[in-house]
Design brief:
By secondary structure, the chain is mainly α. The chain is built from 14 helices and no strands. α5 runs antiparallel to α8, α11 runs antiparallel to α14 and α13 runs antiparallel to α14. The longest helix has 34 residues. The protein is globular. The termini are far apart.
Length: 324
């Protein structure tokens, strides 16, 4: 069967299965007492989704946890040896350090720039155009963004024509400036990679925060101004506290991306020159070294690192629901 046939079969078969399941479930419930129907109906409707979650999320997670306690080929039990290696090998220590840098610099830069641009564009007539231009990098993939910025960071020795945009501009503007190998220099390379991610994500932060900004009642801001508050005081004492829940959601998204940063590092440096991150190291252990046990241990550690963030987010949602 060709690809078109498979697609048509899926388009027809999936809705048919859903309708068939719904009819069968209701028919089965019909023979039960009314009280039992009320209790079982939600679970019967949720059953397909729960089955998919179990098959494609729970089972792989448990299998990865088991693999993390086995040797490189996934055959012999080695206990916590893979986890000891994760927290002691020099490559992983570099990855932890870099992910911490990503966590701090990337998150703070995207949120602060997004908030600043949301406030500034809210005051101009060409707001839609400005936000569209800033949001545009979100429309391309991280791989494409990485290729674009590799040209920006391109390096040629001093005296040679600089084909990299950044070195070309700086050598023209600053007399005596020596071209920098941005992706090789140990001082600049991780920051250069983070800058690419900021360029991509700041548009997302801008759009979300701008939407929340427009939800603040104008009467509230005007009342503060009438009472003598300056624009600075209005921002810090009214605008920012009201935007707090939205900032928390955006921060959660940025933190999770920072923890699982991969594409940009893989394309631009592949973790060389001390730019390694956890996800890229996991990829190397799995597909280059073929050490399934250690790669699974790294995956488990990465998953556990995201759990506190998600737990804090769920707790905050519950608190908001409690207030409402």
């Amino acid at each position: 069967m060709d690809v078109l046939g498979v697609i048509l079969a899926a388009v027809v078969a999936v809705p048919a299965l859903q309708v068939g399941y719904a009819l069968a479930a209701e028919a089965a419930l019909g023979v039960l007492p009314h009280r039992a129907q009320t209790r079982l109906r939600p679970w019967l409707w949720l059953a397909p989704a729960l089955a998919f979650l179990a098959a494609f999320l729970v089972y792989p997670a448990l299998h990865t946890l088991v693999l993390s306690t086995l040797d490189a080929r996934g055959r012999a039990f080695v206990g916590l040896r893979n986890y000891v290696a994760v927290f002691t090998t020099p490559e992983m220590l570099v990855a932890f350090r870099n992910n911490l840098l990503w966590l701090v610099l990337f998150t703070s830069a995207t949120i602060s720039l997004g908030l600043l641009l949301a406030v500034l564009t809210d005051r101009v007539r060409y707001e839609a155009v400005a936000q569209a231009v800033i949001f545009m990098p979100m429309a391309i993939s991280f791989v494409a963004a990485s290729v674009i910025w590799k040209f920006v960071y391109e390096f040629r020795p001093a005296g040679a024509p600089q084909i990299g945009l950044l070195n070309a501009v700086l050598t023209r503007l600053i007399p005596g400036f020596q071209p920098v190998a941005w992706l090789v220099n140990l001082t600049t390379n991780t920051v250069a990679l983070i800058l690419v991610a900021v360029w991509v994500w700041v548009g997302f932060c801008l759009v979300v925060l701008s939407a929340a900004l427009k939800g603040i009642p104008e009467e509230l801001l005007e009342a503060a101004r009438v009472d003598g508050a300056t624009e600075w005081q209005v921002f810090w004492r009214i605008t920012l506290p009201v935007l707090g829940p939205t900032v928390a959601v955006v921060a959660t998204t940025m933190v999770i991306f920072a923890l699982k940063a991969f594409d940009i590092v893989y394309v631009m440096t592949n973790g060389n020159f001390n730019t390694e991150v956890i996800a890229n190291r996991m990829y190397k252990e799995m597909f280059n070294v073929r050490d399934f046990g250690r790669a699974s241990a790294i995956a488990v550690v990465l998953f556990l690192a995201t759990v506190p963030v998600m737990a804090a987010n769920v707790r905050r949602f519950r608190q908001q629901e409690g207030i409402r």
